[in-house]
Amino acid sequence: MAQTKALKGFKDILPNEIHLWQRVEDVARDIFRRFAFFEIRVPVLEPTALFVRSIGADTDIVEKEMYTFNDKNGDSLTMRPEGTAPVLRAYVEHALHLKSKVARLYTIGPMFRHERPQKGRLRQFHQMSVEVIGAAGPLVDAELMAMAHMILARLGVSAALEINSLGCPDCRPAYNKALVDFLESRRDNLCDDCRRRLDKNPLRVLDCKNKKCRAEVEESPAITDFLCLPCGDHFAAVRAGLDAMAVPYRKNRFMVRGLDYYRRTTFELVTDQLGAQSAVGAGGRYDGLIESLGGAKNTPGIGFAIGMERLVLLLAANEPGQTPGIDLFIAGLGAAAGNYAFRLIHALRGIGISCAMDMDNGGLKSQMKQAGKAKAGHTLIIGDDELATGQAVLRNMASGEQRPAAIDDNDINTIATALAAEIQPGA
Ligand code: ATP
Ligand code: MG
Asked: Best substitution site from 106, 113, 193 to test ligand 1's pocket, by max atoms within 8 Å of Cβ?
């Protein structure tokens, strides 16, 4: 038998939950517009090297999570695991720095990571991700966090903003050394992953989820004590910017993020309502990344991504599923009435009414059942008698109230206009 199930970690989004997805997207687009961001759409497939170079070879994503394969030409391709690298690639490829001093871009779409699926963690998931390219100042960092905060607030989702600074190539090496010195003495107490991280990517030990590792790093030196003067000033100004907008936040020195490209500011929006999958959104500054992807020297950049599945889970917790409905179902009984219904429905659709009918011309009982399942606000019943008298029956499906509706010899557009006015909500 043919395969009849979606792949593990790949999920259908059904009509009864789509309103939540649409609301998330509508709210986000509206807030992006207010903050003067423009949409960009980039491919789902990119050369593997793009992600290896930007995300970093020693990260979980590149080491274990990418969907990578050779295409028929033998080129190594990867299903994008995140949106930043493709957007930056597009920025460089199309020389978008010539179009405006600062590029403010957002994109919405599916990402792919081969992870262990669980609640709020899928293999195909969706992100709304945002990049600001060409602005180095700390107020942009604060502005981006405020935007993420505003999106969640408008959706009624409460998540705490946590911020940190990871320093820069000038100050991070000294911190790395201090951290490694500290952790080496406790190597035996760390999990296998962290022992490996200690050699390759020590910062990552700080955000290990393992309880024992967490306890070990509790006393570790704090990166914020090692920031060079410019990084320290930057971090202070980010916080001042947040204070100026009255955006609440807390510092979390253990938050290091899983991608290598971050510098200075990093942040996460966390909730306690999704178990281990606590991050609803996350981002940070990545000065230097654009240059490493072939862009102009010293181009600064910062971005964040919000996970849509997790947002939808938070929204769904507070509201039931909802089967979408239509304005009107037309039950045409018999060939002549069916034919009339077919013409009328097209006229109604032309003036904005959502309507459906049984194109297979079933009996009254079956058609009323279909009207119910379609969640129609009204049903218009037309049989031979109604055609002859020019009076159909219009039924309000919620109240059960029925009244006559004209379907006389007037032209079909006049009939449709009158009917549309009859069934407007509240009429
Ligand atoms: P996590 O720590 O949960 O693995 P991450 O650090 O890998 O998250 P990012 O790469 O920063 O996540 O992606 C930003 C957001 O995208 C996350 O905060 C989360 O909401 C969402 N996200 C990441 N991976 C997944 C996934 N596999 N399934 C669903 N949502 C995800
Ligand atoms: Mg992850």
From this structure: 113
